[in-house]
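Section 4.2 – Deliverable D4.2 (structural model, holo form)

The reporting period included a commitment to supply a predicted holo structure for the target in complex with pyridoxal-5'-phosphate. Inputs used:
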Amino acid sequence: MKKYFLLTPGPTPVPPEVAQAESRPILHHRTQEFGKIFVDVIEGMKYVFQTKNDVLMLTGSGTAAMEASVVNLLSYGDEVIVASCGNFGDRWEKICQAYSIKVNKISVDWGKAINPKDVEDLLKQNKNIKAVFTTHTETSTGIVNDIETIGKIVKDTQAVLVVDSISGSVNQKFLVDDWYIDVAVTGSQKGLMCPPGLSFVSVSQKAWQLVEKSTSPKFYLDFKKMKKSIENKETPFTPAVSLVVAVHKAIEIIKGKTLEKIWQETEKLAFATRTAVKSIGLKIFCDELHISNIVTPISMPENIDGQKVVKTLREEFGISIAGGQDKLKGKIVRIAHMGYIDKFDLIVGISGLEIVLNKFGYKVELGKAVKAFEEIINS
Ligand SMILES: Cc1ncc(COP(=O)(O)O)c(C=O)c1O
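Output (structure tokens):
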């Protein structure tokens, strides 16, 4: 029997209390009992997003909420900006293209952050832009973007700001109202410590005005249907009832701890992990001035295939970390520190990495990175 350690940037481990809540007998979704839980979840997500805006829930992973944002805000032929610094930023472009939305793209080298000034310049040049799509924490490269500055730029224009915080919510500071984010998107399987399958979107008044004008085809993903149902404490269609119950419990845990405390703890885990891997000569893949706290992206030494490192860790030790995506396949590995992942999980991951790297010929002193980690985490 193999023990399983999940250190990927989603899905993340589920706390026992959440798993237990999830396994309660199924409630019917058209009952008062479920309605109360659902409304609590919607209110709780306003805390997670730090917003007074409407929050909507979708049964579907984060990408469903991304696609829903595109189809609800825009119409055929509309023009938008997509500011991307990685794989998930690029996803906004692909979704927009699928709906014949014209994309003006700001593309940054992977590993670098978006420069808000580029967004400002493009918005000044083109007054037809209806929306700016971007990413809070770019999970594929480890970057956190300066959404606060982008928010200040977009707020006084005709455009709405749409931000994917699917991996950033809960663990990385994210203030929807203070940062003027019109539409924020997240999923259940990362900082929210729940299984995959639910996503959430916050929608500002400015965004609702666009929703009113949108003519893109939509049915299941229709924001207006979702908003109307919430007034009756319901969802338009059968929701993933057990996941809603799980998120309800997870929000209780998050509120009990407070976001501020979670941000602080995650920052320390992230710093300790980076210090640990650097202590054995490994390099951080992305610009450390803009590195997020949710994941450590580690460049693989020459001649070591990151894919094989990930596979060996998983198959021999039951430790799941993530590899590189797209053009970073084989070149980097990624260790997450978000959600229920704690310092002792990370010690397991870091020691596993030391062992596997040695096996592949990158000779490191066993325990050196673990020691560096422990020294920081206990300081
Ligand atoms: C930043 C970001 N955006 C989008 C997604 C896609 O979300 P999902 O896989 O839940 O559809 C992910 C998932 O890894 C992500 O990290």
